[in-house]
Design goal:
mainly alpha, Endonuclease III, domain 1, about 60% helix
Length: about 210
């Protein structure tokens, strides 16, 4: 199977099996999306969704959050991973959004990654979800699933290498959905420790499955 055929088969499968694919984080604005994604680093979306309703009620905008203290924010996010650094980054990012961007979330990689606590993965999620850009955020699920399915070569050993390979081979209009396809497939089917290979509809094209069988 050629690379082009593999990508085509995987796209066809997900378009039928998962026609609607979107983030599981809850938010009502670009700012709330940014905050939720920042909190989700090394933390589950489920946990973040338990934390954000009260956080967003208290601090719904960059202006409201910028006026808070680090200690106040910590009370709301203390149950997520690395709460101290995340509270600090949220406060600093909110202040910079106010001071540098007029309270609006910017839409470019350079601007987003200039904010405290915002790395390439977070920026890619915001650009894809909030602005519909063809960006591929690579988390542990995307990294694992891409390798197992054979979408990327074994030599793609970094998130950036995987991102560039996926962006090169997925059609541009598919990339925003493909990001969620791979995340959700990794979260619920192609799990790290116990992949549900027998319940997976991608056995025919999966390098990992065919090596095992």
């Amino acid at each position: 199977m050629t690379k082009k055929e593999r990508y085509a088969a995987i796209i066809a499968y997900f378009e039928q099996a998962m026609p609607v694919a979107e983030t599981e984080l809850h938010f009502d604005s670009d700012f709330q999306l940014l905050v939720a994604v920042m909190l989700s680093a090394q933390c589950t979306d489920k946990r973040v969704n338990l934390v954000t309703p009260a956080l967003f009620e208290a601090f719904p905008t960059p202006a409201a959050m910028a006026a808070a203290t680090e200690e106040e924010l910590l009370e709301y996010v203390k149950s997520v991973s690395y709460p101290n650094s995340k509270a600090r980054h949220l406060l600093e990012a909110a202040r910079q959004l106010q001071e540098r961007f007029g309270g609006e979330v910017p839409s470019t990689l350079e601007e987003l990654t200039s904010l405290p606590g915002v790395g390439r993965k977070t920026a890619n999620v915001v650009m894809s979800v909030a602005f519909g850009k063809a960006r591929m955020a690579v988390d542990t699920h995307v990294f694992r699933v891409s390798h197992r399915l054979g979408l990327v070569p074994a030599k793609a050993k970094t998130p950036l290498a995987v991102e560039l390979e996926l962006v090169r081979n997925f059609p541009e209009d598919v990339i925003p959905r493909a990001h969620h396809w791979l995340i959700l497939h990794g979260r619920y089917v192609c799990k790290a420790l116990k992949p549900d290979c027998m319940g997976c509809g991608l056995q025919r094209v999966c390098v990992f499955f065919n090596k095992k069988s």
